[in-house]
Specification:
Elements (H helix, E strand, L loop, with lengths): L2 H31 L3 H8 L3 H8 L8 H10 L18 H11 L7 E7 L8 E8 L2 E8 L5 H15 L3 E6 L3 H16 L6 H9 L8 E4 L1
Parallel strand pairs: 3-4, 4-5
Antiparallel strand pairs: 1-2, 2-3
Helix pairs in contact: 1-3, 2-3, 2-4
Length: about 220
């Protein structure tokens, strides 16, 4: 089973625990308000039995919108947050760029795909880890640039936490990504990033690390 599959399974288990906790909170707040399950159901357009299932944590398919309405009906407010965890499931496009990049890298590098961050409870993984004596290169493959600053920052944190000596961002060479990269060029250059794809690929092809963190468009 892959790291990403384990992360999805862990998310399912987390949701199971959390919906039981949410149910207890909904029930306690309803009782405090002195409302019946029938009254709460009528207020949000569901049956009393559905209210009961939610309070027992037995409504796995309940939507976030319905929970927000249910919470409001008993005097609560739902708050949702998301945090970086495991990598997203790879699509075919990302796999193609991974293959394309690895085809340009020297066979002298030890290669590891989907390298897990070695921190307790951390579900993040680096797309590719290249190792050579004294060198650990974290490689993140991005098919679509959306928020360059946020994406580079997330990759830097992964590289730091996995103990990498270098970080390479592999960007799909598309019109949209080139525009995004051009818009962020000044900030990336000021941050010390090497944006010369040919130079970086020549080094990696020769079994050498880049001189500094780099962005490669392929």
């Amino acid at each position: 089973m892959t790291t990403r599959s384990r992360a999805v399974d862990a998310a399912r288990r987390t949701w199971h625990r959390r919906r039981v906790e949410i149910g207890l909170e909904l029930r306690a707040s309803r009782l405090t308000a002195g409302a019946s399950q029938t009254a709460v159901g009528a207020a949000i357009g569901v049956s009393a039995s559905e209210v009961s299932r939610r309070e027992l944590g037995n409504a796995p398919r309940v939507t976030a919108a319905s929970l927000c309405e249910h919470a409001a009906a008993v005097g609560l407010k739902m708050v949702f947050s998301m945090y970086p965890a495991g990598g997203a499931v790879r699509d075919e496009a990302q796999l193609r760029y991974i293959d394309r990049f690895l085809g340009r890298v020297s066979a002298t590098f030890q290669r590891q795909l989907e390298a897990v961050i070695p921190l307790p409870g951390d579900l993040r993984a680096v797309d590719i880890l290249l190792r050579a004596p004294g060198t650990v290169i974290a490689v993140e493959v991005i098919t679509r640039l959306s928020d360059v600053q946020a994406q580079t920052r997330a990759a830097q944190l992964k590289a730091r936490d996995i103990g990498a000596t270098h970080l390479v961002l592999v960007i799909a060479d598309t019109h949209a990504n080139r525009r995004a990269l051009d818009a962020a060029r000044s900030a990336l250059t000021a941050g010390g990033w090497d944006l010369d794809s040919r130079r970086v690929l020549r080094a990696l092809g020769a079994g050498l690390p880049p001189e500094r963190n780099a962005v490669v468009a392929i």
